[in-house]
């Protein structure tokens, strides 16, 4: 019977091409607007590391006090003194400390123009904590951290520029005027949003080129290539003065596998801040935070407000399209009241009438979904009109969005058809036969 009802539905669509075209266009434009904005919202609001987001935490310690902090919240990063204290305590199973660096890569030979390389100074646990994939080699060891080694991990993109994409582990190149040896080459890895550095980026920057040893960067007195936030009067003029200041620029992350470990680390942070107060360094009560990845994304308001607003507007437009579709379906179905009356008189049940007209609505939804796919493909390429370029380029029409577009179009149209189908199923056969 399904095939029979499908044939009836297709005949009905051909019988009223203008009405059918209006419904298909309403569904197509409505679902396309929703899917275009959803593709952006999905890209910026997803979980960047779903397998471990509940085990990764960023600690915050208030080193500024209630007169200068962020409305009672600690700074979003740590200064050198607090970062080194947490690093030495090593209260977590894994921990990493990082800050952005910007260096030049000397290509050598005839290609004497240097390349700009953006990346991070990190500690060894960075790669295992964040599950960084490698094409060649791997990260360095904790012993390399202690030895302030000149090891570096580079991206596949930089590896292609420097070494033609070959296995470059063990090779040496000049970075910022110093020689470094490659210990690993990453596969493409750039989680969106970039949860581990929301202090210096908006979460949607391009893939980093390099990762160097944190202690090595400090030895070379490399200033942060990203944000640097200070409070009060700044009197430092030397590198050591900068390290002892209240400027924050280092982002810490720790890996905690259980609620007990989380509670223990939070107590450690509180005790550390209390010790600083007792020592006279802090003139205020302990004020600390410990947020996991998703809590951190929410706190930092990573999802652009325009993406939420656009999605709400698009869904409203889709709802209006569905209301119009309900009216068109009602007109289409009730125009066939005589046909329905004859079918009911010949023994068709209301359930069969429901089935017939809902299947017909599903065919309209499918056609609208196909049109919506074409419009979505066009719209995704033009979202840069509404969103910043680094966000707009995240929107893409993949298999999951194709499937979702078709499913939403069909289900929405079937739901919109329930009231018209109910009216059609309750047509009184006697009235229709008498009027005929």
UniProtKB/TrEMBL annotation:
One Gene Ontology term of the molecular function aspect: transmembrane transporter activity
Q: Name one Pfam family in it.
A: MacB_PCD
Q: Where is the ABC3 transporter permease C-terminal domain?
A: 312-429
**Which Gene Ontology cellular component annotation is one that this UniProt entry carries?**
plasma membrane
Residue ranges annotated for the MacB-like periplasmic core domain, each copy included: 20-221
Q: Which organism is it from?
A: Rhodanobacter lindaniclasticus
Where found?
Cell membrane
InterPro entries attached here? ABC3_permease_C (IPR003838), MacB_PCD (IPR025857), Macrolide_Exporter_MacB (IPR050250)
- Tell me which PANTHER family the record gives: ABC-TYPE MACROLIDE FAMILY EXPORT SYSTEM PERMEASE COMPONENT 2 (PTHR30572:SF18), MEMBRANE COMPONENT OF TRANSPORTER-RELATED (PTHR30572)
Question: How is the protein disposed in the membrane?
Answer: Multi-pass membrane protein
Protein's UniProt keywords contain Transcription = no
What is this protein called in UniProt?
Answer: Peptide ABC transporter permease
Tell me the keywords, alphabetical order. Answer: Cell membrane, Membrane, Transmembrane, Transmembrane helix
Any transmembrane segments, and where? Answer: 21-41, 309-333, 354-387, 399-422
